[in-house]
Amino acid sequence: MTAFFPVPADLDPADRAAAAPAPGQRLPGHGRDCYGCGPDAPHGLHLELFAGDGVAVTARMRVRPRFEGGPGTIHGGVLASAFDEVMGHVPTMCGRFCVTGHLQVDFAAPVPLGVDLYLRATALGVQRRKVFTEAHAWIVEPGPDGIAVEPGASGIPVAAAHGLFVQIDPASHYGAVAAGRRSGAQKS
Ligand SMILES: CCCCCCCCCCCCCC(=O)SCCNC(=O)CCNC(=O)[C@H](O)C(C)(C)COP(=O)(O)OP(=O)(O)OC[C@H]1O[C@@H](n2cnc3c(N)ncnc32)[C@H](O)[C@@H]1OP(=O)(O)O
């Protein structure tokens, strides 16, 4: 399920930050209006993110009708966004703020609307400011309380992804974006 992705052979290990949330703890997310994880984003994915073991991050997402691409199935760009979000949180487990430099998705099976997806992302390693990640997504059966649980052996694998995230200084990165917007670019 994995296509070509140039992961350097000489990566350094990605170490879990001492301040990283404990495994199973809900992650705060990027902000209430974040398209991926924000609870107030009206058209967002509403991913729920959790710290995993090591530098892993897990997430669950209900595949809502508004995510439709082909009839009755998720749009590939929505699934790519979900991978971007869950992999984008991996660097925070190493104490780094990063943005996506490269994102690659392998789609293995159609995902019907209405199911719950479980995603798990982890770091392959780091090189200077770069954090290399991989992730997988499974369809899971709802548990007794109607909430998707970790798939274990019963999950149906549907997609995999790789990402390259580049460490930034949030103040200068987003400050430069804001300055550009003030100088003429319009937010639609
Ligand atoms: C207060 C907290 C707020 C929250 C903060 C976090 C929010 C996060 C929200 C996340 C939301 C979800 C996630 C989102 O949606 S993030 C939104 C989508 N992503 C972006 O908007 C990023 C746009 N790109 C950039 O800003 C710059 O290009 C960056 C910052 C990425 C690099 O420009 P910069 O000038 O800084 O660095 P550099 O060019 O010297 O590159 C550095 C190294 O990286 C390597 N490289 C770069 N690109 C690629 C590539 N495509 N393939 C392979 N390699 C690449 C490069 O070769 C070099 O390697 P090396 O020479 O070391 O070997």
From TrEMBL:
<dbReference type="GO" id="GO:0006631">
    <property type="term" value="P:fatty acid metabolic process"/>
</dbReference>
<keyword id="KW-0276">Fatty acid metabolism</keyword>
<keyword id="KW-0472">Membrane</keyword>
<protein>
    <recommendedName>
        <fullName>Acyl-coenzyme A thioesterase THEM4</fullName>
        <ecNumber>3.1.2.2</ecNumber>
    </recommendedName>
</protein>
<comment type="similarity">
    <text>Belongs to the THEM4/THEM5 thioesterase family.</text>
</comment>
<dbReference type="GO" id="GO:0016787">
    <property type="term" value="F:hydrolase activity"/>
</dbReference>
<keyword id="KW-0963">Cytoplasm</keyword>
<keyword id="KW-0053">Apoptosis</keyword>
<feature type="domain" description="Thioesterase">
    <location>
        <begin position="72"/>
        <end position="140"/>
    </location>
</feature>
<dbReference type="InterPro" id="IPR029069">
    <property type="entry name" value="HotDog_dom_sf"/>
</dbReference>
<dbReference type="GO" id="GO:0016020">
    <property type="term" value="C:membrane"/>
</dbReference>
<dbReference type="InterPro" id="IPR006683">
    <property type="entry name" value="Thioestr_dom"/>
</dbReference>
<keyword id="KW-0443">Lipid metabolism</keyword>
<dbReference type="Pfam" id="PF03061">
    <property type="entry name" value="4HBT"/>
</dbReference>
<keyword id="KW-0809">Transit peptide</keyword>
<dbReference type="InterPro" id="IPR052365">
    <property type="entry name" value="THEM4/THEM5_acyl-CoA_thioest"/>
</dbReference>
<keyword id="KW-1003">Cell membrane</keyword>
<dbReference type="GO" id="GO:0005737">
    <property type="term" value="C:cytoplasm"/>
</dbReference>
<keyword id="KW-0378">Hydrolase</keyword>
<keyword id="KW-0966">Cell projection</keyword>
